[in-house]
Amino acid sequence: MSVLPPALTDLIEAFNALPGVGPRTAERYAYWFVRHDAKAGLKLAAALNALPQGITYCERTYALIPAGQKLSDLYTNPKRDKTLVAVVAEPFDIVAIEKTGLFNGTYHVLGGLVSPIDGVTPEQLHIQELVKRIDEDKVKEIILATNASVEGESTALYIQQQLGARNVKLTRLARGLPVGVDLEYADQITLGRAIEHRQSLNLKA
């Protein structure tokens, strides 16, 4: 026999399914909604319900954009340099870089990182679409802004191999970023310096 009402148990289980949310944290979240005005819960429910119909992916950069759009504003903006592309793992990495105010290029979201342990292969990522963009947009520089992790390094190496003999400058964010820290959690100063002092990865002949 459950001590808690089924409605509350279901809410706890829903929170517990979120990444990084353990059982105790899930219980605290659920209890917060019980103790507070019902409007808070209704607002959250409405936002979650509207989410699938409210967003889509840019057909060019794979960044998150409002439903009804085809291309990201960061790509279509004439002030952005299409020949400079920062390659990131996830859409929220774009937010982290934009906060530095030091990047005026465009982005390309891979949709994850190569990770055989997790069953993520290069074919599941938007790598071939990146290669196509390089040719069509006449990209001059690719900044590999993936995390400083084993998966991030493996993905960066794979992309480097896929570029072949293309005449494009390949750089990596400077090692000011701590190893193992996700890009979206890096502070603006550290991330800004990493962009400014990015390192070349082009192989010497």
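The record above closes out task 2.4. Task 2.5 opens with a second protein, given below.
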Amino acid sequence: MQKGLILRSTGSWYDIRNADGHVFQGRLKGKFKLQGLKVTNPIAVGDHVSFEVEDEAENTAIIFDIELRRNYIIRQSVHKTAHGHILAANLDQAVLLATLAMPRTSLGFIDRFLVSAESFRIPTTIVFNKADILNDEGLAYQQEVIDLYERVGYDCLITSATEGEGVDAFRQLLDQKVTLVAGHSGVGKSSLVNAIAPNLNLRTNEVSTFANKGVHTTTFAEMFELAPDTFIIDTPGIKELGLMDTSKTEIGHYFPEMRVRMNQCRFNNCLHFNEPGCAVKDAVEAGDIAESRYMSYLSMTEGSDNRR
């Protein structure tokens, strides 16, 4: 039995890298369930597995077991809403690539991703790409958004893959870590990765000017080694991000600015809706918690279908 790392998942077949760096094409041994976790992909990129070589000539293998995950980022499945889809597992950090134009990444989408990462205490940096296409008004708004998230405690970075702005800082951010890079289609994930690792030659596409939306260029999540102990996981563009495995009472704990105020609420089961003596509501009214963040919180706790 060998140990391996899942580099790529195509649904039924997996690229497995063993300790020697050789990559096998693997598949699961029969049905595979994860302790009651309802997911469309029982094995995800970043998983560590045990496998046996099935056919050396064909370079195939059979996966028998999966090691316990340190963490993972999961979203609600688009096609099977009762199931989740694991974007990646065993991460050191996540990078959310956002653009404020062509296409626009909404603050609600950013907040949902941050909550998903916070639920497993995965550090996240927000990278604002395509700074070169913003006019003065757009740049001013971008700085307002950056100020909002930096006040909460999130690191932010401005980049332009085409102009080279922030590319070195992006490269340094990834050093010696396993990083999930995620975002809407068209935000420039592949272009930015190509700027620091041109040998990967990831496929890119222009954004449709008609719909102001990106075109999917990545079909399956895939892990790439940029340098020794430095890995990135490139994911298909995320259109919607429905939360999974998160109850109403938990969501507030994943907003850092709410978490620090919870013990100041009059009731220990306060949901921060209309309860009297709510420290979170008082902070929103005082401007100490951004209204956009509070509205995102309400959308998540009320089970809104607004996942963009």
